[in-house]
Design a protein that fits this description.
alpha+beta; FAD/NAD(P)-binding domain; disordered C terminus
Length: 400
């Protein structure tokens, strides 16, 4: 369990340079880098840790490269994750195995803990079990006010800048124009669980993906002998049956082995997976990671984008704390979209294709005789997107 390093009373005693709301990968990476720049930063989350997250800890090549650039390679090694070598895609009787250039499967709770501890070690203060809401602000306000309820009392924390990293945006915890959440009609919902009881066919080093009429299911072995199950399911099907029932149907349709024990654990779900904010910024507020928008499917691109945006926001944070300008809203919107749009575009294309198992089976047939097509897709999903404001990786195609 990760203990808070400060209390609510202490957090209210002065004005913070930055308050990061949300201690997932995006928020923790942002807090880590902000603290390294010498700013006074509070990392806050409504949950206590460790916590179970629906999203597993599949880190693709881009995510791993960014974490190593941040000096976290030793910490990554201590997670004892399982290296990923292969994607095994099943749709009906069609099977396709594709080699992965890099990847690591870790327990998400341990990944979160590692990143939070790195931020704390860099000088960030950490406060868990607190739900913060942005109070209304005027364009010329010198600080943002975040409030929380403690009994019948409203407590307030002040910050020169707020970084919102609360994950998949569910509702509007603010009245700021532009931060409204926009969802996509007929978006699939997320559901998942972890289990220690599963057929031996689910071996380490492989991401197994089952494609069916009512959704798709990813299964990955992580450390400690557990299997992470994450699914994107049609909401209509889930309303007729429990998520585990729909997952079982998808696995059966794709020819994957399963047992009833696989589905006996605690299941968690989400609202529609594809949603975004109109603008990922407001007065003295910058939004990072999935809080700015998320597009199914589960490919590891979401984790990579979260980590990448958490790092990329730091130069904007420094500028905003030194001297806020409304231009910052437009600047961060431009950079955020440049960072996230390529991944979102890839995921939209994949999400569209995965709704039609017949098409998937046809594509599997094509890739089976033209492996280079599959290799090209895998390279796109694992590409290292280098941000030009940060130190480029030597030899990378995106380096200046």
């Amino acid at each position: 369990m990760i203990e808070s390093t400060t209390t609510l009373n202490e957090a209210q005693s002065s004005v913070w340079d930055v308050v990061v709301v949300g201690a997932g990968p995006a928020g923790s990476v942002a807090a880590l880098e902000i603290a390294r720049r010498g700013l006074r930063v509070l990392l806050a989350d409504r949950s206590t840790f460790p916590r179970h997250k629906l999203c597993g800890g599949c880190l693709n090549g881009d995510a791993l490269a960014t974490l190593r650039d941040l000096g976290l390679e030793n910490a990554l090694n201590q997670l004892h994750g399982e290296p990923l070598h292969q994607l095994s895609l099943h749709a009906g009787r069609r099977r396709l195995n594709l080699k992965l250039p890099s990847g690591l499967a870790v327990t998400r709770s341990r990944l979160d803990e590692m990143l939070i501890m790195a931020a704390i070690d860099a000088g960030a203060s950490f406060l868990s079990g607190i739900s913060l809401k942005l109070e209304p602000a005027l364009p010329d306000d010198a600080v943002r006010v975040l409030s929380t309820q403690r009994g019948n009392t409203t407590e307030r924390i002040l910050a020169r800048l707020v970084v919102v990293a609360t994950g998949l945006p569910i509702g509007n915890a603010t009245t700021d124009a532009g931060l409204d959440v926009v969802s996509t009609n007929n978006s699939r919902i997320g559901a998942g669980t972890t289990t220690s009881s599963f057929p031996p066919e689910y071996t380490v080093g492989t991401i197994f993906m089952a494609i069916g009429q009512n959704g798709y299911v990813g299964l990955t072995r992580t450390d400690n002998g557990t299997l992470n199950i994450a699914a994107a399911l049609d909401s209509k099907a889930v309303r007729k049956a429990k998520p585990e029932g729909v997952v079982e149907d998808v696995l059966k349709e794709a020819g994957f082995p399963f047992t009833s024990e696989m589905f006996s654990g605690e299941w968690r779900g989400t609202v529609g997976l594809t949603r975004c904010r109109q603008v990922p910024a407001a007065t003295r507020v910058l939004v990072v990671g999935d809080a700015g928008g998320y597009v199914e499917p589960f490919t590891g691109d979401g984790m990579a984008g979260a980590i990448r945006s958490g790092r990329a926001v730091v130069p904007f944070v420094e500028r905003a704390v030194l001297e806020w300008s409304p231009q910052m809203i437009r600047d961060w919107k431009f950079e955020f979209q440049k960072l996230m749009k390529p991944g979102h575009r890839r995921c939209r294309i994949l999400a569209g294709v995965l709704r039609y198992p017949t098409i998937v089976r046809g594509l599997i047939g094509i890739v089976s005789v033209m492996p280079s097509v599959g290799d090209a897709v895998i390279r796109q999903l694992n590409r290292e997107d280098c941000h030009e404001m940060l130190n480029p990786r030597p030899g990378h195609s995106g380096a200046a």
